[in-house]
Amino acid sequence: MTSDEILSLTCIQLAAAIRERRTSAVAAMEAVLERARWMQPKLNCFLRIDEAAALDAARFADREPARGPLHGVPMAHKDMYYRRGVVSSCGSKILRERPAPSTSTALERLDAAGAIQFGVLNMTEFALGPTGHNWHYGHCRNPWNPERITGGSSSGTGASVAARANFAGLGSDTGGSIRLPAAFCGISAIKPTYGRVSRAGAMPLSFSLDTVGPLTRTVEDAALIAQLIAGPDPKDPTCDPRAVPDWFSQIHQSIGGVRIGRPRQHFYDDCDPEIAAAMDASLETFRKLGASIIDVDIPDIGGYSAAGGVISSSEAAAFHGQWLRTRPEDYSDQVRGRLLQGLAIPANSYIDSLRMRGPALAEFCDLVFSKVDVLHGPVVSIRTPTIAETDLGWSEHTSQVLSRITRLTRPGNYLGLPTVCANAGFTRDGMPIGMQLITRPFDEATALRAGHAFQRVTDWHLRAPRFT
Amino acid sequence: MNLTLVSNLLEDQGAQPDPEHVAAAASTLAALLKTAAERFARLPFEAEPSGFTAEQRSHVP
């Protein structure tokens, strides 16, 4: 196989090709390393590429029997998944020399499945921001238009996977940080149910809201990787103790009879017409696949966003309190400003925000998931902002700009709902349009099945940005 | 929120915020807390944070 042929494969296809000796782990690693080196000056998606170690690991993989379903597949991850003794900068200046204290459960499970990590990816400083900007290591750029944002905070994961400089990678999502880069970069992803994937060994931002998940080229890859990393973990007491159903084998089942909801409120408020048209077209695709499309009322998600904001600001300020006092100059202005506001939140407001989560989830499930199996809508209702218009210090204006980006993602973190993202088309100026498929808690299977069914009959996910 | 109150709260905790950060925090938090307060007012007396996990698990397919 040529390098271009290798780079066009999904994780599942590449693992099969290596297993069947149609290519090798070394050939795959050499191809992705060459692509990553070429892409880095254009997109700035990598914070470190571990070339020699990755090639050694690939040579070893070619000599040993297949370890698991990702045997020999190169992957790079957001630089906040720890490997004991190795620096994880978390996109920050503060941690850029600190060896990580432990290895993350998600990485251990990917290692066991045979994946080979070849680098770490750019991200928003401490995962705090939805644009993908990083003022310490340089902003990451969108492969579809380098003047536009990637979305964040998993910026490097979104950009590298879209640019075919990575086969898949881990992101994290506290207010939209998996779904936004997936949408803005035109790839697939899953934000699992809160508690489904262990957070052990991943940088904390807001322990009540943080979720771990993969960004991939296809929903099928997302299903496989999520399946591999999900499940109980004694190192993370918030991780759900139940075994994970076999999502991957269920993904090929028909979606005939599945009820897909089109929200009557909020999702289409001030929505860009091209984005709304792409959503309508995707619903028509689901209808042809046998799903029924139902208009559905949803509760006021503004209250969920506000309560989620109170929780994330309070918890992040607690993690960062010491450094805010002793090393304030080592934060970028926007991140320091966002963290500081958490120090002024009254304790009762934080606790009320947590107390409200149960009733809010009950309300949402009663109103929405008693009528439909999947809630469908855009990930963002605005066009992809430029880097220039979002390259801002912290101010009231910045807060409003960022809120417009996270308006449709933050409620999902507050409710802890699983969400699958897939590209549903492009604007006339060539930017991807992301769709989200939201299901009831722990029903990742239905969201994955719907996303995969969509990709079996459409080709949006196969399109890749072109570079000269 | 009152600017002086926010500034004092941050300074009392050892932070030294820029005036622009204080102003942004005051306006952003005022909006967040006002929006959330309308929902908090409807909370059942007995609601506890652990209710979320219980509610989540009641929806397992």
Describe the secondary-structure layout.
The complex is a heterodimer of chains A (468) and B (61).
Chain A lengths: L2 H5 L3 H9 L5 H19 L2 E4 L1 H13 L10 E5 L26 H8 L3 E6 L33 H8 L5 E6 L5 H7 L2 E4 L19 E6 L2 H11 L17 H4 L8 E5 L9 H16 L3 E5 L4 H26 L6 H9 L5 H9 L1 H13 L4 E5 L8 H4 L5 H11 L3 H6 L3 E8 L5 E7 L5 H14 L11
Parallel strand pairs in A: 2-3, 7-8, 7-9
Antiparallel strand pairs in A: 1-3, 4-6, 5-6, 5-10, 9-11, 10-11
Chain B lengths: L2 H10 L6 H22 L10 H7 L4
Write structural notes for this entry:
The complex is a heterodimer of chains A (468) and B (61). Chain A is of the alpha/beta class. Chain A has helices spanning 3-7, 11-19, 25-43, 51-63, 105-112, 155-162, 179-185, 219-229, 247-250, 273-288, 301-326, 333-341, 347-355, 357-369, 387-390, 396-406, 410-415, 444-457; strands spanning 46-49, 74-78, 116-121, 168-173, 188-191, 211-216, 259-263, 292-296, 374-378, 419-426, 432-438. In chain A, a hairpin with a 5-residue loop joins β10 (419-426) and β11. In chain A, α3 packs antiparallel against α4, α11 (301-326) packs across α12 and α11 (301-326) crosses α13. Chain B is an all-alpha fold. Chain B has 3 helices and no strands. Chain B has helices spanning 3-12, 19-40, 51-57. The longest helix of chain B is centred in the middle third of the chain and has 22 residues, at 19-40. The termini of chain B are far apart. Classes of the chains: A alpha/beta (468), B mainly alpha (61). The interface between A and B is large, with 53 and 45 residues.
